Amino acid sequence: MSEYTTGELAKLTNISVRTIQYYDKKDLLKPNRLLDSDRRIYNDADVSRLKLILLLKNLGLPLSAIAEILDSENSMTVLNLLLEQQERALKTQIEVSKNKLKLVEEIKRNLPQIDQVSIKSIADIDKIMNNKKSLRKVHIHMLLWGIPIDLIEIGTLTWGIIKSDWTPFIIGMIIVAIGATLLTKYYFQNTNYICSNCNAEFKPKFWAAFFGVHNSKARKLVCPNCGKKDYCVEVYDEKRSIKSA
């Protein structure tokens, strides 16, 4: 069995000699034997005990509690429970960190839109992120309803070409027109726009928005607040959800 002086033990466990001396004073770690010169000698069992002390200390336990655990007849059972508790805490911490990372990534993805809005606090960012989620739901609803409309149009057109029977196509186009009108109305009822110049949120006139040059994130409109015509960022109309509630 290997033996270690106080200095060697300190170097082996990456702590100071003073710390080992302090643990000795607190009766946490006694040397295996003393030399005539009062030098303390530790063995492998002492090394294991010291590593256990350091582990428990890192878990946040005070030295008095560590001493009780080490001297307990059920020390291994207590230690196992502590480790399980620490494992759960670390897993929770990891999950929280993952959620924070997702939030950071979401904010980074939406920086072009967030940059157009006056942000005064974390609450503002949270509000923007919730708004983006609501707007995404609007887009999903439109997509889900838009697919059947497209199928009706394509299906009846194909039928007309193959069978030379255009009656289903005419009826289908009437249904498509009604569906497209309802979808368009739903879309504009649930969306507002934020002016990139003055940050005012507004709902444009239907035809101005309908014919406005746009991309997937913004639409070129005249702000009723400052009168400037520029690309305005699309947002969910939160007042609409309040009315629904």
UniProtKB/TrEMBL annotation:
GO molecular function: DNA binding; DNA-binding transcription factor activity
Spans traversing the lipid bilayer: 142-162, 168-188
Key words, A-Z: DNA-binding, Membrane, Transmembrane, Transmembrane helix
Gene3D superfamilies attached to this UniProt entry: 1.10.1660.10
Matching SMART domains: HTH_MERR
N-terminal signal peptide: none
Start and end residues of each HTH merR-type domain: 3-72
InterPro entries assigned: DNA-bd_dom_put_sf, MerR-type_HTH_dom, MerR_fam
Pfam family, one: MerR_1
Name of the protein in its database record: Transcriptional regulator
